Amino acid sequence: MSATSSKDAAARLAEVHAAVATAEREAGRTEGACRLIAVSKTFDADAIRPVLESGQRVFGENRVQEAQGKWPELRAAFDDVELHLIGPLQSNKARDAVALFDVIHTLDREKIARALKAECEAQGRTLRFFIQVNTGEEPQKAGIAPGETDAFVALCRDELKLDIAGLMCIPPVEDMPGPHFALLQKIAARNGLAELSMGMSADFETAIRFGATFVRVGSAIFGARDTH
Ligand SMILES: *Cc1c(COP(=O)(O)O)cnc(C)c1O
Questions:
Q1: Ligand 1 interacting residues, C-beta cut-off 6 A
Q2: What pLDDT is recorded for position 226?
Q3: What's the pTM value of the predicted model, to 2 decimals?
């Protein structure tokens, strides 16, 4: 990206922060109740740096390997970055994911839960996790089925003793997101989970109305992406 559009990213970040604050106020929520994850996938270190320089510290990436290519360098300059993995995770990447990320949003099956548990112990790392729920029950989409979520929360939290912060969802693109956010909130509430990771560039204000505590915003900050 050029220097000009990088400068734009910092300006757009300020606009998104303002929109988050407005949505919180309109929903009658405390200012700062919802945190902003700046989703920097597909953008390189030079594009990310201006956003770091304007004070943003919480970032999301969806591919382990891509994140490994840019974040060690950025973290050397900004050591208080909090890095969130928001994309699907394969068991063979669990080691690298645990080494690099602070929070993983895509826990959705027993095999990966056990692999992450083993890696956290092996590396002496404490990560926080979100369980991804496939609220639209889309066959091709990651996430645990809504009806299986309570049992999976119990497995992860009570048996594996993972730090389960809350739930995450990505509503089907063709649906109104509100009912999906409401369903996620209901499942979290009955499981005593405080955090909700929901809402992207197109619908983060709606998500905040439904109780989001983390919104994941990419293109509204960094601009349009070529792929994924
Ligand atoms: C890419 C991505 C986002 C950000 O999407 P935008 O529409 O660019 O805001 C949020 N969540 C997940 C899981 C993503 O993969």
A1: 39, 41, 62, 86-87, 170, 200-202, 216-220
A2: 81
A3: 0.95
